[in-house]
Design brief:
The chain has 167 residues and is of the alpha/beta class. The chain has 5 helices and 6 strands; from the N terminus they run ββααβαβαββα. α3 links the parallel β3 and β4. GO terms for molecular function: histone methyltransferase activity; protein-arginine N-methyltransferase activity.
């Protein structure tokens, strides 16, 4: 099967379509190109993990089951951090289908698929209940919906909806 990938031509700036080999992993390419800055930001990731561990510890100290909601999961890094910190379960929401597929693959390859469910929807469309996308409401919200315009990705409405319906 042939795979075609759009690449920016460094000379013209135009988008050129390039044929890739069968081994080409589109999801991995997306993860590398769009999310690399965040994935390689060691200070950022250490702070997120520190905060997630503290939140998980507080909920566990109350004797509650820890259910995490990760809105805009991207590659699933924050979801995996939550499970490594001791969360019982995590719902990882990602609206961009190729990224949701990449996150699912990353979860499977790293042994997290039994504790993390990737949901390919906008968070405002996620349902909770026995027949819903989420079986139960979460008690911890982790997310990073900020783009270069700070709130350009609809962060505020997503957070408001999550607090009212999902957490």
């Amino acid at each position: 099967m042939k795979t075609f990938c759009g690449r920016a031509n460094p000379t013209t700036g135009a988008l050129d379509w390039v044929e890739e080999s069968e081994e080409y992993d589109y999801q991995l390419e997306i993860a590398r190109s769009c999310y690399a800055d965040m994935l390689h930001d060691k200070d950022r990731n250490e702070k997120y993990y520190e905060g997630i561990r503290a939140a998980v510890s507080r909920v566990k100290a109350r004797g509650e089951r820890v259910v995490v909601l990760d809105i805009g999961t991207g590659t699933g890094l924050l979801s995996m951090m939550a499970v490594m910190a001791g969360a019982d379960y995590c719902y990882a929401i990602e609206v961009f289908k190729p990224m949701a597929q990449a996150a699912t693959c990353i979860m499977e390859r790293n042994g997290f698929s039994d504790k993390i469910k990737v949901i390919n929807k906008h968070s405002t469309e996620v349902t909770v209940g026995p027949d819903g996308d989420m079986q139960e409401r979460a008690n911890i919200l982790v997310t990073e919906l900020f783009d270069t315009e700070l709130i350009g990705e609809g962060a505020l409405p997503s957070y408001e909806h999550a607090h009212m319906h999902l957490v």
